[in-house]
Design goal:
alpha+beta; Catalase HpII,  Chain A, domain 1; ten-stranded antiparallel sheet; 8 helices; 10 strands; globular
Length: 372
């Protein structure tokens, strides 16, 4: 599922000096995939989540080999959500979430935002498809020098519960060299071992895809805790809900292999696109450690403000290309939950980022017009 996701970028703090402890602990990971007919390409990215497991049982080298067996080797690109463009804009907070979180981002006012729209999967030159999982990754730069990063996907739940599920799903979904497709028996065996994935996949398949990036809802999927000034912790999930009216995805893909990105560029040429940041407030008993389970639909929601995306540009040095949208990079007032996927994402991306940073870079498949 947003994700997609790599290890932390080395962003200079306001002082211009680096804190080694911060650089070592702020790590991220790639997310998301769907079994059986829903974007098998996304499955490979889940493998990265397994990097934190016991080295004797499952190490990073095995995961990388498995990931590249599924998607091929693409030096310089993210191992998941490889095809994407950078975005720039701002977030206007209305102050409605300030009672739950002391994070400065929720005080009334505007903060700068940059980020990335991308497709799930590890192939940077893949053709856009109407039913491809899409992601929105964001970096909120706060006035006090803190940073909030979030990786979100346009699916309602995560298809696996933990890192072991990631790895087993990757193995099951790896194409057979003889047929070019996953072994149906292996997929069925995986689903038999993971009934939670069967339920999650059904929810994902039941949620229709939107026509493009601008009218998609992007869900954070994992649970977090908001902490207010009094120290009260509240379980939450969040989503970016589009202002643009939903339109269903086309049944067949146009000839343009980059039609989703081209449509986004055309949409932004007509004016900024916007999303409402909707916070869902959990109650005691709502699962915070299992992203395959949705919360009840009657939970309280808070409209915390509006994200405005004004422009997109091709990935290059100095913009979103070399940023890790680690969902555990959080400001004071937001804390990770006990969801095991969060620590998994943080652990595996450190290796991914290190490798990507040392590899030669080539242009992305889609190059929007300058200033689009």
């Amino acid at each position: 599922m947003p994700s997609p996701f790599e290890p932390p970028p080395i962003d200079p703090p306001p002082s211009g000096r680096y804190d080694l402890r911060v650089l070592l602990t702020r790590r991220g990971m790639a997310a998301g995939a769907v079994i059986g007919g829903v974007v098998v390409a996304m499955v490979a990215g889940f493998a990265w989540a397994g990097g934190f497991l016991t080295p004797g049982r499952l190490d990073q080298t095995r995961l990388i080999a498995g990931f590249e067996a599924a998607n091929g080797a693409h030096p310089g690109f993210r191992r998941n959500h490889a095809k994407g463009v950078c975005l720039s804009g701002w977030f206007d907070s209305n102050g409605a979430a300030a009672a739950l979180s002391k994070a400065q981002v929720f005080r009334p006012g505007r903060v700068a935002v940059f980020g990335r729209f991308a497709l799930a999967g590890g192939m940077p030159r893949t053709a856009d498809k109407p039913a491809t999982v899409r992601s929105m990754a964001l970096n909120f730069t706060l006035p006090d020098g803190e940073i909030w990063r979030s990786g979100m996907n346009d699916i309602p739940v995560f298809p696996v519960r933990d890192a072991r599920g990631f790895y087993e799903q990757l193995v099951a979904a790896t194409p057979d060299p003889k047929t070019g497709k996953p072994d149906p028996a292996a997929l069925q065996a995986f689903l038999k071992r993971h009934p939670e994935s069967v339920k999650a996949t059904a929810l994902i398949k039941a949620a229709p895809f939107s026509s493009g990036f601008a009218d998609a809802r992007y869900n954070g999927l994992d649970a977090f805790f908001f902490v207010n000034k009094a120290g009260v912790k509240t379980p939450v999930r969040w989503a970016m809900v589009p202002v643009d009216a939903f339109a269903p995805a086309a049944k067949t893909a146009p000839e343009d292999k980059n039609f989703l990105f081209a449509a986004l560029t055309k949409r932004l040429a007509a004016g900024p696109a916007q999303w409402h940041l909707i916070i869902t407030v959990g109650k005691p008993g709502d699962p915070t450690n299992d992203a395959t389970l949705p919360w009840p639909a009657d939970r309280q929601t808070i409209d915390a403000g509006v994200l405005t995306v004004a422009a997109v540009e091709a990935e290059a040095a100095g913009n979103c290309r070399d940023t890790n949208f680690d969902p555990t990079m959080l400001p004071a007032g937001i804390q990770p939950s006990d969801d095991p996927l969060l620590s998994a994402r943080s652990a595996a991306y450190s290796v991914s980022f290190t490798r990507r940073a040392g590899e030669p870079k080539t242009p992305s498949a889609y190059q929007p017009p300058h200033g689009a």
